[in-house]
Write a structure and sequence with these properties.
Length: 739
Amino acid sequence: MTQRRGFKRALSFICALCLMFSMLGSGPLAAIAEGLEGAEATAGQIPLQDEANPAAEEARSAGSEEAEGGATATSLDDDAEPEGTDASEAVEEMQADEGVDTASDSDEGSDGAITEDDEAPVAVTGAPVLRAPALRAGAPKVVDAKITNFEIQSLSYSTLTSVFYNDTFYLAMDWDASHLGPTIHEGDYFDITLPGNMRFPAGTTARDFDLKDGDGNVIATAHVDPGPRDIGGTLRVTFTDNVESKYDVKGTIYLAAKFERSLITTGQSNTFSITINSDVAGSSQTTDIGVIVTGPKVLVDEHVGKWGEAVDGDPNVAEWVVRINHAKATLTNAVFSDTLGSSGESYIPGSFRLQRVEFDPYGNVVTATNVPDDELASMLSFSADGSSFTIDFGTIEGQQYYLRYRSTYTPTTTLRNAATISSNEVNKTFRGRYISADSGGTGGGSLASRIKIIKVDEDDVTTVLADAVFKVTAPDGSTFTLTTGPDGTVTSDILTQGSYQVEEIQAPGGYEIIPGESSFTMEVTPAGGAIRRVKNRKASTIEISVKKVWDDADNQDGIRPASVTVRLLADGADTGQTAVLSEANGWTASFSDLDEYKDGRKVAYTVEELEVEGYATTVTGDAATGYTITNVHEPELVSVEGSKTWDDDGDRDGARPASIYIRLLADGAEVAGRIATEASGWRWSFGDLPKYRDGREISYTVVEDAVPGYTPEYSGFDVTNTHAPGKTSVSVSKAWDDA
């Protein structure tokens, strides 16, 4: 055994030297390499079975005309593979002795599967087969997954024991790779050979779909490669980077399918098989299930029958098929009607096709003649919203009809409708429903030696949040930060065992840290890590109103500005937001969509007004009730004083009154009055008079009530009253006594 191993190592060493010198193109060993290459050219290069792509291998072995260039490829079976693969083993043993990773890992169940990152092996006549070592340690490999449950389910995901031969259903599978621990990596895969007596047409079976974990992360992608005529085929599950460092990896698959009618027997149980990794020795597993396939029945006295079908390439449309008058009855005043109710969907007018047919006893069309479109149009009418229609047949004398039409459809919902044939003789309603098939599945696992944080919205956990920053304190006291990415997650590097203290130090934009949820402990063990979903509260927003009150005697002085600017402060700091208040907006405004909290604390919002000249400003109120800004301006005041002067010769005639009444006029209108007397010194005054009205200076004047016998004369606010004393004549006669 020792000699054999030594020989292997020597041979491997020589091959390596040959390869090296052939690349250098000189030296005696280069000639040896050329000789070996010549031997290969003589024998011809024949590819081995492509274990990584069984579908491609099947095409080659069948001499597929679809091969590139139309050439037919030839393959060797495992039994036909030349002896001498010990050379490959020798290379791997030598690499193992030298600490070099190899591409094949039998413990992982790869069984030497060839991947796109490996060199294609060649078989050489008379020479050992050399398999190239892996170009990278992480080359994709086959995953030795197991099928733990296999059943057929309805489109509402209930287990079925019998299925109508023409129905669409789900192949439901539970798969499990938990026994592999955290050794599954991005690009690793497993294949499932689908039942050969089922069909997987494109209109029914999604060609590609995702397997997601409970948080919506794609753990693996699935690709369906159906066989000829969509019968059988393979399903490949390829893991994404979300599987990295996870153990206990397992999940489910549900795949929409139909029976291949030519390969089933109705009225009895049929067996359906799936095989996982059928081309990988030691990893292959076949699982069977039996289900009764029911067939059509002879129709008895059917006046209307209906069902829904998928439309290839358009998941937003459903096709409806109706049999009318299979009973061959005579129907007078016959009207066919259909309604989608309050589903919100509508019929598609241009999709209607009506045929006069002959049905067999099972309802299958034997012969058919199309009803011309113009004739159908004259019979067909729709409701205003397109959710119902009628076809007026008039009198049907035993004629059978076959009707197809389409409606809009919301994928994965159940669409119900009611089709009715009414006549003088019968009134029959058939209630149908349609639900589309939606292939999919799940996948998940626990984290190994890492911590993973998932940041989500408090109110909607399906909304993931990027840019949340966490401070992590390791058991030794060292710290590092983790920031969530666009998918709302962040995963640490491999960590040592222990307790890690995690604290959220920055919430994503538009969100706030929730007190009590931002600090926690995560335990990491060599076998497992920890996952924590952390919620952020959407920064609740508030609206702050502000209004202006003017206390300036209704702008008496005319200095009120056309507008004022109010600035919003948050915790005393300027937010950069301003509002302009003016007469146009009623001197009111609001600051909207303001974050109520910041870093877990309630924000204190205040407002301040840019200075308004000539006014004193006071602010009252709060953020909850709104702020009122009052601007006060004291109008400028003036006083008026005057006095009375009597020009009446000291009241010689005694005509002077005891008092007079002085009226004060503002812009010609009386606003006040005063009584003046000798006791007041014949003086008067008017104080605290507004100087302006509507921005214009007021013209004050005084006027005296008329004083009989006097004429007033005004000088400013002084009044002089003039009275001319009365005169009389005296007759005088002279008497002389002078004898």
